[in-house]
Amino acid sequence: MTPAVLRRARPEDEQALYDICLLTGDSGLDASALYQDPKLLGHVYAAPYLRFAPEFAFVLEDEQGVGGYVIAAPNSRAFEDTLEREWWPRLRQQYPDPANLPAEQRTPDQRLMNLIHHPHRTPDALQSEYPAHLHIDLLPRVQGGGNGKRLMLTLLDALADAGLAGVHLGVGGSNKNAVGFYRHLGFRELEAHPWGYTFGMKLPRQP
């Protein structure tokens, strides 16, 4: 098989990012059966990065098409402000706010709808020390062979070249492979949560 090509993401890759986000959305496994609306995961965790931070979006492409991506927001707070102005308003018209339902009664779709109406804000300490954040997802066919590491190192170099002090990410505690992958790359645990961990990495300042 021809090795996957790593390249910068393009606007026409958006649907592939939606698809991959869903197909890896259950701690790396296919989440299609969990969600009635197949686009919800991508609305929150994939598409806005390609739209608003394309210089930090990279994909792996093989003969079957795009099979993996890494995406990042270089300044998390600024990115959140951009989404509040330019991304969430349209989606809030499309999806109802489930705030009247207790959290434990919400469906997986409704939990994502809640994030659309009440998005996460990066804590001050993370923003100060690790202002960038990222997401990486690969389909099984492009996993292994160093592809994940290639994507991550490409992104980390781009963030360092942009002068970012550090980068953070969240990972589910049940995703043991991902936890080990991030530790192997040099990320360290910053905080443990009921759902998993926040990891961070300081980036070398470029001249």
Automatic annotation (TrEMBL):
Keyword field contains Metal-binding: no
Keyword Acyltransferase: yes
A single MF term (Gene Ontology): acyltransferase activity
Enzyme class (EC, first level): transferase
N-acetyltransferase domain sequence ranges: 4-206
Keywords in alphabetical order: Acyltransferase, Transferase
Annotated EC: 2.3.1.-
Stated name of the protein: GNAT family N-acetyltransferase
